[in-house]
Specification:
The protein has 256 residues and is α/β, with parallel strands linked by helices. It contains twelve helices and eight strands. Strands 1-2-3-4-5-6-7-8 form an eight-stranded parallel β-barrel, surrounded by six helices. Helix 11 links the parallel strand 7 and strand 8. The chain is globular. The N and C termini lie close together (9 Å). Bound molecules: phosphoenolpyruvate. Phosphoenolpyruvate binds next to strand 8.
Length: 256
């Protein structure tokens, strides 16, 4: 059985005060929810103060990116060690917005992934096709390139520690969710590919999240799909009521 994982990507939202208010509200909403991983990924400026507020909580902390070097003259960057030091357990890698606006490539994703694993951070590696790629019937080809490139040189034991988020770019922040059938088709493809890259047991143990306009209204149907183990949530993670609803509904879906 794979443990459900619901993660909130706050992107570039929330001042320190706003972030503290949201975490206070989430702690109140979700304190008694068990048997799933709940993660919030605020901007860097909030990590350390939220870590203090989450010490007794069932909510874990994640960052939205990292740099692969340990330290050095890399102005503006933050290392895996620094994220651990700030209290992170998770880190998002290769989000489509980073690929689109900050020239993230499968090669840089790979280096970041290795740095995260080395420092015992759980990486949430994002992959997904654009609308143009879907319409050109190249979704699977794109996923294969991103997965094999991103996971190059990662062994079986390391792969088992990774979470993969399938996020079709056309569904992120657009209000358009992939249908549960489209999402499951992609997740199944990813799991089958992982079985080829590693083995069936490893592929069955890796958690796959869906991301793209997840809301309280669509989470249950998505979670009922056999290969969807959770969600990476953007817009709906910015409010305690919607993120709380998503986490509760996801926790309530019983998988066969
Ligand atoms: C995301 O940022 O990863 C995301 C899926 O955003 P949204 O839920 O707003 O589409």
């Amino acid at each position: 059985m794979r443990k459900t994982i619901i993660a909130g990507n706050w992107k570039m939202y929330k001042t320190i005060k706003e972030g503290q208010e949201l975490v206070n509200a989430l702690n109140r909403e979700l304190y008694n929810l068990q048997n799933l991983d709940i993660v919030v990924c605020p901007p860097y400026t909030l990590l350390s103060c939220l870590a203090d507020m989450l010490t007794e909580s069932n909510i874990a902390l994640g960052a939205q990116d990292l740099f692969w070097e340990e330290e050095g003259a890399f102005t503006g960057e933050v290392s895996a060690q620094m994220l651990k030091d700030a209290g992170c357990q998770f880190v998002i890698i290769g989000h489509s917005e980073r690929r689109q606006y900050f020239a993230e490539t499968n090669g840089s994703v790979n280096k970041k992934l290795k740095a995260a694993l080395k420092h015992a951070l759980t990486p949430i590696v994002c992959i997904g096709e654009t609308l143009k790629e879907r319409e050109a019937n190249s979704t699977f080809k794109v996923l294969e390139g991103q997965l094999t490139g991103g996971l190059s040189g990662i062994n079986q034991e390391e792969a088992a520690r990774i979470v993969i988020a399938y996020e079709p770019v056309w569904a992120i922040g657009t209000g358009k969710t992939a249908t549960s059938a489209q999402a499951e088709e992609a997740h199944k493809y990813i799991r089958d590919l992982l079985a080829k890259l590693y083995d069936l047991e490893t592929a069955e143990s890796i958690r796959l999240q869906y991301g793209g306009s997840v809301k309280p209204e669509n989470i249950s149907e998505l979670m009922q799909q056999p290969d969807i183990d959770g969600a990476l949530v953007g817009g709906s993670s910015l409010r305690a009521d919607s993120f709380g609803d998503i986490a509760r509904k996801a926790a309530g879906v019983l998988k066969s």
